[in-house]
Design goal:
mainly alpha, single chain, two-stranded antiparallel sheet, Rhopdopsin 7-helix transmembrane proteins
Length: about 290
């Protein structure tokens, strides 16, 4: 009975990853590339600091799909774990995952904060929205998240799994493992979406009041357009990233016995949430509609 359930769970994980994950990845890459092309080709967007943040976000999103989602599909859909066969890939996979995820969410935060300031009633707050300042801020965060991922290169190593007696890629440092649980998954991955929600609500309120202000029509419509685009991505990112973060915390800190059936259930739930997390990237296609 137990072996039958485990086999069925493994089959379900494989089928979902192949037939759900692959189309989402393809759509996400296409959507991200279209976003990048649109933002870079139109002069109006090239001069906007919010559009600059969204361009960088799209670049990191495409990178995350290619460097993280593709290996995930290969591992769970086609039973080939590149991290188990290559120590280099074991380390670089975790590094790229944290770096691209945090960078993408940071630039979404900056975009919605920028729109809140741009639609503010106070002129001195609007002056913070300029492309030169955006270049400096993004450079700072690129350095921060690049350095932040270095422990992943150090503490991710090959070990022998006590359950399967096979080589797996896993964090081998206890302190860093605790940080991943409470510092990364619990704090950073949840604070950033929360920031986007708070500033998103305030930006939406400002955008609704634009009609009552004496500003050029083109500027007003651009601010409305960018605000709607950002709010759509904020809403979907919050709904997908939070379950993913909670699942990762649960997986790391769970104290369940090494029962193969229980572990199979946990693994199945993790794969379902991970595929749902990949769905987040398809939201980039929606932003094209508003152009």
């Amino acid at each position: 009975m137990a072996s039958s359930f485990i086999a069925s769970a493994n089959l379900v994980k494989q089928e979902i990853t192949i037939y759900f994950g692959i189309p989402i990845v393809v759509m996400g890459v296409i959507g991200g590339c279209l976003n990048i092309i649109t933002f870079l080709s139109l002069k109006t967007f090239r001069q906007s600091s919010c559009a600059f943040y969204l361009t960088l976000k799209s670049i990191f999103d495409v990178g995350e799909l290619l460097l993280n989602a593709v290996p995930f599909i290969v591992r769970w859909g086609f039973k080939t774990d590149w991290g188990a066969s290559s120590l280099f890939f074991c380390k670089i996979r975790s590094y790229m995952f944290s770096t691209t995820t945090l960078s993408s969410m940071t630039y979404l935060c900056l975009a919605i904060i920028d729109q809140y300031l741009a639609t503010s009633y106070y002129l001195r707050w609007q002056q913070w929205c300029n492309i030169k300042l955006a270049h400096r801020i993004t450079s700072i965060f690129i350095i921060i998240w690049t350095l932040h991922g270095i422990p992943s290169l150090i503490f991710n190593n090959h070990i022998i799994s006590p359950l399967t007696n096979t080589t797996i890629c896993q964090v081998t440092n206890y302190i860093f493992n605790r940080y991943l649980s409470y510092g990364y998954y619990l704090t950073l991955n949840n604070i950033l979406p929360l920031i986007t929600i708070v500033f998103g609500i305030m930006a939406y309120y400002n955008a609704r009041n634009l009609v009552h202000r004496t500003i050029p029509l083109v500027r007003r419509e651009l601010d409305k357009q960018l605000t709607v685009m950002v709010l759509v991505q904020v809403l979907i990112s919050f709904c997908t990233l939070v379950p993913f973060s909670i699942n990762n915390i649960f997986t790391i800190v769970n104290t369940f016995p090494n029962d193969p059936v229980i572990q199979a259930k946990i693994s199945l739930a993790s794969i379902l949430i991970a595929n749902f997390f990949i769905l987040y990237y398809a939201v980039r296609v929606l932003s094209i509609i508003f152009y």
